[in-house]
Amino acid sequence: MKTVAVETAIATPPTTNKHLIRWVEKMADLCQPDSIHWIDGSQAEYDFLCSQLVHAGTFTKLNEKLWPGCFLARSAPNDVARVEDRTFICSLSKDTAGPTNNWEDPFVMRKKLKALFKGAMRGRTMYVLPYSMGPIGSPMSQIGVQLTDSAYAVVNMRIMARIGAPVFAEIDKDEKRVVPCMHTVGAPLAPGQQDVPWPCNDEKYIVHFPETREIWSYGSGYGGNALLGKKCFALRIASNIARDEGWMAEHMLIVGVESPKRPDGTTEKTYVAAAFPSACGKTNFAMMIPPAGFEGWKVWTVGDDIAWIKPDATGQLRAINPEYGFFGVAPGTSAKTNPNAMATLAKNTIFTNVALTPEGGVWWEGMTDTPPAELLDWRGNRWTPAIAKETGQPAAHPNGRFTAPAAQCPTIDPDWENPNGVPISAFIFGGRRPTTMPLVYQAFNWSAGVYIGATMGSETTAAAGGAIGKVRRDPMAMLPFCGYHMGDYFRHWLKMQRNLSATPRVFHVNWFRKGPDGQFLWPGYSENMRVLKWIIDRVRGRALGKETPIGWTPHFDDMNWKGLDIPREQMKATFDTLQTVDRAQWKQEVMGHEELFLALHDHLPPEMIYERELLICRL
After folding, report:
1. From 181, 200, 280, 482, active-site residue
2. Engineered SS bond to 53: which of 59, 190, 451, 512, CB 3.0-4.6 Å?
């Protein structure tokens, strides 16, 4: 009976690509699903899958008046985040993967995966999901096909990527290489067996084969482990493609900053890309609202997480956001911290692992100052502020998420789907550093800029475990996402500049410097616009800078302080503290760079050593 279901479904695939059809047949043979569903990407199909997920108990439909088109999902408690220790780069040689990645022999891993996937979709439907990272047909886009037995993954992917019939049409042109992606939750059903709301497996594998451009994911239904277009394709596999083809796949947000209208009615727009490790305010920065004193200025959002950056025919770097939606962390997001994000997720959004209110809405820590009197927490248990006080249990999981369409963002850039991307004038790096790092400084040149990105880091907080106050290096915020040797990745960055007619300027920012009292010195959030304006003025050749051993820093009067309700003298004193370059601290900092460089020594570009020597000499 099963074979009939498979064959009838396969008999009319919406594609003429023989290789794709053959691959789907082969994988169906391995995984043995009950039926096959070719995804067309329509609204009707999405509604049908969502209603099935409600029926299965995976989704709760939210109050249509309060949260139109929204659903809440609760995952299994052991499937709530990306699993870095179960993420593998299976390149042909261990050396290519480098010391910062988990490596396993691809031959051994394939054997293991084949055994795990054998019959793994029994009792389930296999969805054939074609997707485009980037606007369909753009010369900067890439195509993948994900086979999955998770309807949750399908509906989230519909928000996060461009999917369905138009992508099949693109595949049929046979112009682009297609990245094959295999995904199963690893929970086959025996005949008559009752399913659970969130099927998954205790054993998890997220595996990348860089040479054959394949992704295999087993055992998890969650986020970056299951939505394979996101970190797996758009960063780990794409970083390999980018290195081979001469472009960059980066863990960066992209924003456009537009000046007020000039007398002739024109404005000036400058695009920058920025890389911050997690918990450093990336989504907030990507959707910034300019503060008082910046009337007429606009910040436009192109992307909040991933940038694909390519030189055009004239040697200007241009970037696209390969994604179609935002997969953002909900806790801490509020009308105060990020009103644009709140507007974006107000409808047609899938929430995962946040709390449910009695009237059918959602809530999470930080959303409002006072929590509701009673909720169902992310596990579905009764929660009150009193219970929280007693047990320390949060209502929403700290990694609770929203999946929202990017087109709903009030500040989405008019050019965000431009197939040729937007021109990038500056790169910004930044981490969470209570000491040492000034609020902002500019690299002397490209090579010094690559060194800044390569050595950036964040101090570990209580949340991350381990020794508090130790700096965790996270080069270009790519440590968990670079699909090959980090030393070769730095070399690729250095090489990129050789073909550019206009080199973007490179900056480092730090919103998290603290005073002697342990309080943050910088107000952050929308006030970061003041720093962003100095960066843009530097790029445009309008602002002065002061030379320090580490780079160029602004003078107090180079910044726009209009609208800030802090007395000038007080602000100047704070600013001087924020911009202090303490030579003793910096000598310690440079010693810290050595640890990373030793790990990468056999692939480390000589430029990195020279930049370090120059920095030591200047100090």
Report:
1. 280
2. 59
